[in-house]
Design brief:
The structure holds 2 protein chains of 2 kinds. Chain A is an alpha/beta fold. In chain A, 25% of the residues lie in helices and 22% in strands. In chain A, the strands form 3 sheets. Chain A has a 4-stranded parallel β-sheet, with helices on both faces. In chain A, strands 1-6-7 form a 3-stranded antiparallel β-sheet. Chain A has a two-stranded antiparallel sheet with strand order 8-9. The model of chain A has no long low-confidence stretch (mean pLDDT 96). Chain B has helices at 22-30, 51-68, 86-103; strands at residues 36-40, 76-80. Chain B has a two-stranded parallel ribbon with strand order 1-2. The longest helix of chain B has 18 residues, at 51-68. The chains are: A alpha/beta, B mainly alpha. At the A-B interface, helix 1 and helix 3 of A face helix 1 and helix 2 of B.
């Protein structure tokens, strides 16, 4: 899933500083699963903002709504009747949400309430870790099911590097050296020789280096069949 | 045991403090309560295993949130006592009222604020 962290209340308050009536919109997708922008978090943010503005004797009227997803226009369009009633809209979805909203409702102002961080999963309740870099050319099977693109600080295909020390990365001692983990796993499996194979140059054009990406599935595009 | 505790404490019963959510505590402050505290079972004694421990984490979250927006975090507290400690219940109510009285009226002028 896409993982995000909520921005500080100070930052969000400064965004809506001049507004009197706002809408806080959550998303039932990834940000609900990572407990940052679902129904619960929307109410908590709205309440915190109201407390802060009441304290400043500058009350803020806030309505809340949670969309099934903010990355699909069919759901985004559900705000059509009400979106114009507000001075601004705060989106608690990942970075995709406020963009889809902005594209559909060109007159309205949309503020992002979260910082979108990475593609990952929960390793324990309350802890999320990066697992995928969305490079567009998946090769995790070559590395014992572990992705060095996302999890090695240098995205090395032939690791580890000299910065690996006792299983930790030199970038941060709390970050595991994923190449140490890959080698250990291959040794456990008795397949360490697999790592001797030289991988060809990685084509980074399928990653962000090739510019914004687009995915088309012909069978789903209306009018094609 | 006819113990008295301050009349300005309004008791809201829940089956377990694990039922108390962040939004309940925030709503109390938002609506003008001068303070709000959660009285849970003794740590390690929760019938539902960890309800009171979860409540403490939620109280801590609310304290951090209030601090971030300039409201005294001491307006929200977590206490632990057993249902057999009636005297302690009255003592805690007095303690909390005294703590909040020191802070003065809430700076959050909600619809229920005096």
């Amino acid at each position: 899933m896409i993982v995000a962290d909520r921005k500080s209340l100070e930052e969000i308050l400064s965004m809506v500083e001049t507004d009197k009536k706002i809408l806080v919109v959550g998303c039932k997708g990834c940000v609900t699963v990572c407990n940052v922008g679902g129904a619960k978090e929307v109410e908590v943010l709205a309440s915190a903002l109201k407390i802060a503005r009441k304290k400043a004797e500058n009350e803020l009227e806030i309505d809340t709504h949670v969309l099934e997803r903010q990355c699909d226009n069919e759901y985004v369009s559900q705000l059509g009747d009400t979106v114009g009633d507000y001075d601004a809209v705060v989106s608690m979805a990942c970075g995709v949400g406020p963009q889809f909203l902005s594209e559909m409702y060109r007159e309205q102002v949309f503020y992002p309430a979260v910082n979108t961080t990475f593609f990952g999963g929960a390793t324990q309740h309350g802890v999320w870790e990066e697992r995928c870099a969305g490079c567009g050319t998946c090769g995790i099977h070559l590395f014992g099911g572990i992705c060095p693109i996302a999890r090695c600080a240098k995205s090395l295909l032939h690791g580890p590097c000299g910065g690996s020390s006792n299983g930790a990365c030199e970038v941060n001692k709390d970050t595991e050296c994923i190449w140490d983990t890959i080698v250990k796993k291959k040794m456990e499996q008795g397949k360490v020789d697999d790592l001797l194979a030289v991988k060809g140059f990685k084509d980074w054009r399928s990653a962000r280096d090739g510019g914004p990406r687009r995915s088309i599935r012909e069978e789903l595009v209306e009018g094609n069949i | 045991m006819r113990l008295s505790y301050p009349t300005n404490v309004k008791v809201i019963q829940v089956p377990c403090t694990g039922r108390v959510d962040i939004i309940h505590l925030l709503n109390a402050i938002e609506d003008g309560a001068d303070g709000v505290y959660v009285a849970g079972c003794l740590e390690g004694e929760c019938h539902y295993i960890a309800g009171n421990l979860k409540a403490r984490r939620k109280v801590d979250y609310v304290k951090r949130t209030l601090e971030e927006i300039g409201v005294e975090p001491e307006r929200v507290e977590m206490y632990n006592l057993s249902s057999a400690q009636g005297a302690r219940f009255a003592e805690i109510a007095n303690e909390m009222v005294e703590q909040v009285a020191k802070l003065g009226p809430t700076p959050v002028k909600g619809s229920c604020a005096a």
